[in-house]
Amino acid sequence: MRPLVVTAFTSLDGVVESPGGEGTYRNRGWTFNAVEFDEAVYEIKGREQEETTALLLGRVSYEAFAPVWPDVEDFAGYNAMPRYVVSTTLQRDDERWPATVLRSLDDVAALKETDGGPIAVHGSASLARSLADADLVDRYHLLVFPVLLGAGKRLFSDADKDMQLLSVRESETYPNGVTKLVYDVVHGARPAAG
């Protein structure tokens, strides 16, 4: 089974909205405003691009990325790999950045059953929440910035569900205060009764 990896820039309070400055969110661009740039923080981003074999996006992120990512030289690997968009409303993909449209989480589960390596979810907060709630996420790559943003789209839903256990794969805190957290989702394990 192909692992599904959710990768995100997040504030300490779980907000993932507009980290790079896109959209109209009042705190947009917070990754640039919160800390000094440290190239070491982004090492995981290069590794993700090398390890990823397909991208999975929600409609909103796909429509934001499609006009921009094809022209970004640093994303050559992403531009060369298959892309999938989960949407019930997207009528057709953007010819500048072709993608296969998946209509349901069942389609995502079927994609995970195909041959190939890791599938990465970038941006796509609503999709990431739905995937987690459906127990389809296998790993999280999080860069946690030392900032509290209050309102905004969050990475995790507030659904009333059973506890989900995670296993730390790697972690590191950088001099600028950003913390890298990589967790594997422990499927099928339930915490001991207390």
Short description:
The chain is an alpha/beta fold.
Provide key terms for this protein.
single chain, alpha/beta, 8 strands, globular, 6 helices, eight-stranded mixed sheet, 194 residues, Dihydrofolate Reductase, subunit A
CATH class: Alpha Beta
What's the count of strands?
A: 8
Give me the side-by-side strand order of the main sheet: 4-3-2-5-1-6-8-7
How does the major sheet shape up?
A: 8 strands, mixed
Ends distance: 33 Å
In which range does the helix fraction lie? Answer: 10-25%
The CATH homologous superfamily corresponds to: Dihydrofolate Reductase, subunit A
The helix/strand order is EHHEHHEEHEHEEE
CATH topology: Dihydrofolate Reductase, subunit A
Give the radius of gyration: 16 Å
Query: What's the total helix number?
Result: 6
CATH architecture: 3-Layer(aba) Sandwich
* Overall body shape: globular
Estimate the strand proportion: 15-25%
Class from secondary-structure proportions: alpha/beta
Total count of domains: 1
Please identify the oligomeric state.
single chain
Mean pLDDT across every amino acid position: 93
